[in-house]
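User: Assemble these into one structure.

Assistant: Restating your components, then the assembled model:
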Amino acid sequence: MKIKSEKDFWSGLMFIVAGIGFAWGALNYNFGSAARPGPGYFPFGLGIILAVLGALLLFKALTIETEDGDRFGKIAWRPLLLIIASVIVFGTLVPRLGMIISLPVLVLIASLAGDEFHWGEVMVNAAVLTVFSWVIFIWGLGLTIPLWPSIGGLGK
Amino acid sequence: MELLNNLALGFQTALTLQNLLYAFGGALLGTLIGVLPGLGPVATIAMLLPSIYALDATPALIMLAGIYYGAQYGGSTTAILINVPGESSSVVTAIDGYKMARKGRAGAALAAAGLGSFFAGTVATMIVAAFAPPLTELAFKFGPAEYFSLMVLGLIGAVVLASGSLVKAIAMIIFGLLLGQINTDVISGVPRYSFDVPELTDGIGFVAIAMGIFGFGEIISNLSRPAENREVFTKDVKGLWPTKQDFKDAAPAVLRGTALGSVLGVLPGGGALLAAFAAYTLEKKSKGRPGEVPFGQGNIRGVAGPESANNAGAQTSFIPMLTLGIPPNAVMALMVGAMTIKGIQPGPQVMTSNPQLFWGLIASMWVGNLMLIILNLPLIGIWIKLLTVPYRFLYPAIMVFCCIGLYTLNNNNFDVYMAALFGVAGYLFIKLGCEPAPLLLGFILGPMMEENLRRALLLSRGDWTTFLSRPLSAGLLIAALLMVVIVSLPSIKAKRKEAFKEDD
């Protein structure tokens, strides 16, 4: 058995896993009957449909020939990890250290994900964006977001 | 003359200083993101959603609408000048528009696109105003069964007209519907799929999904591709005004594009993108004057037609959203979300319960189009300069706005983490060739669909045939089925592939 389309194969697998997962989870809730559908009724049905569609894709991926094998290609680990890491770090830091510190950290980590990285540029970019955000979001729109490190915030 | 009264109310609302400012802001921002490749209206509107908490509903929606149709204008500018469509709906504009620019006729191409879009926008606004009330009347006759079937039709329609694999797209809808099931069941009050995480009992925020997938996921995908060499071809745009012959050539194309775009925009999944593709095909098929420049070599009709069509389509795609509360595309899904944030239940009752919002929004579209033509034609130089901003400055800025928006949503970092998770998912979807827009549509419609399904079943005492025995509901379901069957036919399938080939 050879995979004829990598993209379809893995998508099919993803849909099967997600569908079965949701259908399985729905078993914990009251299914009810057609006349009185319970909270588990709709998600169970949908989960099964999703799994069936996934199986269909999987079948297609193993039988129908594609020109170039529809390769999944390489995963761009560097942008993937750095971009996601920058978001998570921001989420962790902001309640403790405030926007003044978290935003430049976010910009710095995110900038590392690109092809080109120049310290000077990134510093300027971080400074401009932080000031801009302070003016627009806190001063202009009045959103509540911690600005400075909170006292004892590090210990939280 | 009710239409005139309604429009008068609309213009009264739209022409207040505050609303004018927000329409202008939206149009400006829309043009900006339209010009900047790699940043689309979906991500931008998602980015701005948290900040509309501070606004009233009417100015908020006016601004968001301005972003959507403003992006259509901006996208054509880059398509013409540097052969990089800022928006997917401008892909076909690049074919002839860029050729025109290379021949030194960038000005004529930009003017044709701008004036054509303005004309199309004006007509489409009138269409929205004229057709919204009767459709709303119809919607009031809908029971839960009809609503459910309508949503099925809407969701299916949204994917059959899009590019890519049909099975994958339908699977993505279902995936979205399932993600929408992570909430507290409205009828029984049971929290579902929350894994005892208190934040999940309210459901996943759709802002987190939209920003994760369309913001972070896109950025990762953009960064993984080698940087494209963006060279601004035309340093100075001379002779902005088209010649008399240009007008003669472009006018019928504008009319055809407007008509086609208006119709396609109303269809679920239609909107701007499909309208532009269809209009280009139509222009290629219809006869021009003898001796005109061939298509693909800089024919002005190839710019005027699709540009009018995408603007008309962008405008009329508001109809299903405003009258039925059913979003035909991802941008409208976010608009529905914005309404809910402002405490307005989208649906047919909006017109009567919030007439100012309803008619003000429609009138603002025309005002916004007028602003756009002023923004785009004389100020073209500024937009060209913006194009030289490298992506390495741009994407950290996008991330900053997204992260602030996510945190301020509930003043809590849970949404930030959720968006990071969906960023990974978004990148995975792109790698797997699964279009993420249907997922968002499904997610928005999920809870509504479930409620209507369960209510319909309750009313029919568990009889599933209720969906087929009620004529209106049956008609809608049959239409949905027909759509799937038709696009699955081998001959149509090949055509569909061909039509979207230029997209890649």
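Chain B touches chain A through 66 residues (CB under 8 Å).
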